[in-house]
Amino acid sequence: MRLNSILGRYLAKQIVVTFLLVLITIMGIIMMFDAIEALRRISGREDVGMSYVFEYVITRLPQTVDKVLPFVMMVAAMITFWRVSKSNEYVIIRSAGVSVWGFLAPVLLSVFIVGAINVAFVNPISSRMYELHETIKYRFATRNPKAMLFSSKGLWIREATDDDRVLVIQAKSLRQEENEVLSMRDVSILEMDRNSQIVRRVEGLVGELKDNVFRLRAVKVYAGGEPTKTLPSVEYNTSIDLQRIKENFIDPDAISVWDLPDTIHFYESSGFSAQRHRMRYLSLLASPFLLVAMVLVAAIFSLKANMRQGGVMFMIVAGITTGFVVYFSSQVVYAFGINGYIPVWLAVWTPTLVVGLLGVSAMLHLEEG
Question: What is the domain extent for residue 76?
């Protein structure tokens, strides 16, 4: 069946409209629980008002929806197929000589397009909202409404050197040398007090991290109310090491799908592993196919010629159980991929391929039966 046929457009409209309705419902539930959590956080805090609750809920929403999107699509598909079966539309369509794959083709294509739109257009917004959410939480923790959470491209790392001073180190380029030395260029250090107020800024043309000592050369020092100072070098004693820097790379969820390839190249060219970022990038590319696989799973339980009594309850229980099994299995496989036990591409594509092949096999069996 073609997507541009009357029946194809009807089925595509059904799945898309149902998906949007289910998504809005799930978003409302998520926002309600997040609002309760935000209200609990601000209880007893006179310096925080209801604006924090609103910002907390709105900026957290895209991140949560991104995680539950496959389940939302599966639920939407189950509802759509149940409606078509209950109204006998499925029986009429099959009686007209349309195979089950002809029936599913416009639905699967529509779902794939929805997934592609989510990756290409929604993900950049979601990643930006995630970054804003982390900044809001940071401002709440520091009790400073103007505090900034640095999570831009390149290397950003924060360290508390003593009770009164915090360093925020940024380097535009860096490379790990063979003798466990981290070389940097275009380095900027913000010295801040405990209230996240900037005391001075130190900029160096090159920097070097070795043996818990951070050295800058060709340095300029900027401080409020004082003339700019030029120094040959500056040293900082630090607890930062290569492992600490690896752990403090920017969270992959805060990077748009369009920027992830450059970020992966940046980290790998610097001598570090970009395993988590590569996993995130491949997961985004695979997400439209995962949505299609979840629709196939939904079709197994809810696409029937007749709905016997009790069939609805079985459909709900079986669908929810299958969804949780897929989720936890994918998380286990992802963990193997992040830790390097299996290749990244295998960790990302295995859940999607397994679920998709099982769905295709089950539908072929039902079609033959």
Answer: 6-143+274-368
